Amino acid sequence: MKVSSNANQLLTQILSGEVWPPLADRHGYRVDPDGRAFFLPGMGGVTLGVHVGDPATGYAGDHVEPGLSVRHRETSANYALQYLTCIGNRVEIASGPAKGAAGFVIGQHAYVLVDMSGEEMSQVTTGDQVSVIAQGQGMHLEGHPDIVVKNTSPALLAAMPGGTIADGRLEIHVSAVIPAEAVGAGAGMASEYANTDLMGAYAGLGEDLSLGLEGLRVGDVVALDDQDHRFGRGYREGWTTIGIISTATCMLYGHGPGPSSIMSGPSSAFHVVLDDAANLKFFNLDQPRGRS
Q1: pLDDT tens digits for 208-251?
Q2: Contact assessment for residue 113 and residue 19, using Cβ atoms and an 8 Å cutoff
Q3: What is the distance between the alpha carbons of residues 279 and 173, in angstroms, rounded to a whole number?
Q4: Which is the most buried residue in 45, 174, 175, 193, by most CB within 10 A?
């Protein structure tokens, strides 16, 4: 992205975590929007076969977390991992058969979510230690004082198309524009933590539940209408939040594939361009940038 930032002032910290196992309780079942019981995999562990660029709907799963689900076993350290990790940060496997392999952060949910090559991912298992090279929180964009940036690594910012245009707005390329009525679970939470589930992407559950979001992909950059995620998450008419889809299929009502927030400000500060290539799959996130 052709925009000036304070990337050279940002600190880099090495954070630790581990691949967390899927969790359940003795009740097991949940219900879909029409009250039908289901029992499906989704959160935690290592989820194979779902990568950036792949569909975010259509799986036999619930709250599907692509790739590795990472957290720290100590509560305070886990909050730090969630808050300080940014999309595009490099993640290195520090133990187990895949030691030395690397991937990158695609967003936050109940865990920090990490994508990597399928061949290397198949060698990772729960309990494996990881190191996150965290960099990005504290970023601001020069010339765009009304836009708050969060969860964005310098590598992600550099890789995104767009930038400052002649009239002073920030051009952002997105694969979809999300109506405010689609915003579900996650509203009211800190926007550095987890993500915002989108309703209306319930593939196969009937047209009356559709908001035309079944075509979302993991890693899509999206614009959320009338959403202010600067200091939490909430509805504000005339504001726009930019996010990246980090989770996939959800069957629980009020939930769905969800974006992690990366920018938020008045809609007048953005020039939104629809672009099917606005997806992490097409961004080069291999090289760290900024102070390291």
Answers
A1: 667 888 899 999 999 999 999 999 999 999 999 999 999 999 99
A2: no
A3: 9
A4: 174
User: Which of 57, 35, 17 is closest to 253 using CA atoms?
Assistant: 35
Kindly report the CATH number that applies to the domain delimited by 11-134.
2.40.10.170
Total length of the chain = 292
Residue 148 has pLDDT above 80, yes or no: yes
Q: Which CATH architecture has domain 148-282?
A: 3-layer Sandwich (2.102)
Reduced DSSP (H G I as helix, E B as strand, rest coil) percent helix, strand, coil of the chain, to 5? 10, 35, 55
| Residue pointed to by tokens 């779902």 | 50
For the entire predicted model, the pTM comes to 0.94
Domain boundaries, the chain: 11-134, 148-282
User: Which tokens belong to 156?
Assistant: 């992600």
pLDDT, position 33:
85
Q: Is the pLDDT of residue 149 over 80?
A: yes
Distance between CA 114 and CA 280 in Å, rounded?
Answer: 12
